[in-house]
Write a structure and sequence with these properties.
The protein is α/β, with parallel strands linked by helices. It contains seven helices and eleven strands. Strand 1 (24-33) and strand 2 (36-45) form a beta hairpin. The model is unreliable at 1-22 (pLDDT under 50).
Amino acid sequence: MDRGGSRAARLGALLTGDLFPADTVEEPRSVVLQGTEVRYLLQRSCRRRRIAFRVDERGLFVEAPLLASIGTIEASLHATARWILRKLSQWAKRPAPRTRLWRSGEQLDYLGCPLTMLVVEDRLLPLTELGPDRVLRVGIPPAGSPGQVRAAVIAWYRRHARRHFPDRVGHFAQALGVELPRVMISDAATRWGSCNSRREVRLNWRLMQAPALLLDYVVAHEVAHLQHLDHSKRFWSAVERIFPEYSSARAALQAASRHYMSL
């Protein structure tokens, strides 16, 4: 026994209802760092071997091995407090994403290029399609609501994601020399992509807003996980082998993620 209970008891608490370990277990927590209370989301994973920190517009995320103790996690937080507080301060100073009203004239992004939205009431065939001069025509039923406009736009992005993502995954899978995985569309609110031991790659449809370079970074990142389900040196070496620009693309995506995730 340790202060947190037996290893078996701790593991049992993290099992799903069908008795198989969950890929990721999330728990909101808080800690006081240098006199400042910091809330964070603790993400435990059976694939992770080390504790890692990530800060973006949503706050602090702590990724840890499934059985890491809270004491060990908080010791790492205190050791990294200066960096964490600096990053949180930098994100807090960034302007908030512009609120969308979902009406004609608003700007959207598609593969890094601006689109202008034109909302059209169409009783017979309310379609969403990209027309000349980069105008996205969004057809809705008469007296449609802003929520219906948003739903139509999201459906349009998802439709293009289903066509675009498999091609990019195939490109990087061939470059790495791995078997083509199953490609799935994600609606996650906190991550751009994921890969699991069942060889399923999930990619967020919101990536269709980003320039091709940033989208390809996420795809290359997840394809590299087909060889290494961790973030070891071997993993990053695989990423660099198929996508040498990964470092600058990762920084650019992090800087723009608040905007893209707001859709």
